[in-house]
Amino acid sequence: MKNVTDSFVSLVHWPFAGSFGFNTDILATNPINLSVVLGVLIFFGKGVLSDLLDNRKLRILNTIRNSEELQGGAIERLEKARARLRKVEMEADQFRVNGYSEIEREKLNLINSTYTTLEQLENYKNETIHFEQQRAINQVRQRVFQQALQGALGTLNSCLNKELHLRTISANIGMFGAMKEIID
């Protein structure tokens, strides 16, 4: 562990390079080494580069060929779609013409149905009014009858004494008895 730490410490104490400037020594600047490396790269890289360019060219040509095939298929589909569109437009025109006549028929049926419904509603209204009138008349009759009966009872109770009341009851019983004998 101490050796590793010593190696890092020794790296820190490396001496710095001298001043910055041009080196005119050809062997020290390595132009020969650079030209050799560039020559080797050009010699061996030329084949790799030409292979890459040929592959790229083939891919581009294949893409163009595929695009042309797709274009041809798209043109065929477009023509078929246009033919279907023309057919659908003709059918739509036919449906439109038939639809207008159907709409007119439905409109007349609706008008007739509405007229019939209105007549029925008018009849129901008249029946309801007649029924309500009869009911009102019956209620008035019942009320008049009740008031007349109450008035008559009040008059009878005030005018009749006990003896007269008993004679009236006896006379009525006698009348009912005589009616019974006539019926039998």
TrEMBL record:
It comes from the Eukaryota. InterPro entries: ATP_synth_b/b'su_bac/chlpt. The keyword DNA-binding does not apply. It is found in: Membrane; Plastid, Chloroplast thylakoid membrane. It is a single-pass membrane protein. The chain crosses the membrane at residues 32-49. Keywords: ATP synthesis, CF(0), Chloroplast, Hydrogen ion transport, Ion transport, Membrane, Plastid, Thylakoid, Transmembrane, Transmembrane helix, Transport. Pfam families: ATP-synt_B. One of its GO terms (molecular function) is proton-transporting ATP synthase activity, rotational mechanism. GO terms for cellular component: chloroplast thylakoid membrane; proton-transporting ATP synthase complex. F(1)F(0) ATP synthase produces ATP from ADP in the presence of a proton or sodium gradient. F-type ATPases consist of two structural domains, F(1) containing the extramembraneous catalytic core and F(0) containing the membrane proton channel, linked together by a central stalk and a peripheral stalk. During catalysis, ATP synthesis in the catalytic domain of F(1) is coupled via a rotary mechanism of the central stalk subunits to proton translocation. In plastids the F-type ATPase is also known as CF(1)CF(0). Belongs to the ATPase B chain family. F-type ATPases have 2 components, F(1) - the catalytic core - and F(0) - the membrane proton channel. F(1) has five subunits: alpha(3), beta(3), gamma(1), delta(1), epsilon(1). F(0) has four main subunits: a(1), b(1), b'(1) and c(10-14). The alpha and beta chains form an alternating ring which encloses part of the gamma chain. F(1) is attached to F(0) by a central stalk formed by the gamma and epsilon chains, while a peripheral stalk is formed by the delta, b and b' chains. This is ATP synthase subunit b, chloroplastic. The lineage of its organism: Eukaryota, Viridiplantae, Streptophyta, Embryophyta, Tracheophyta.
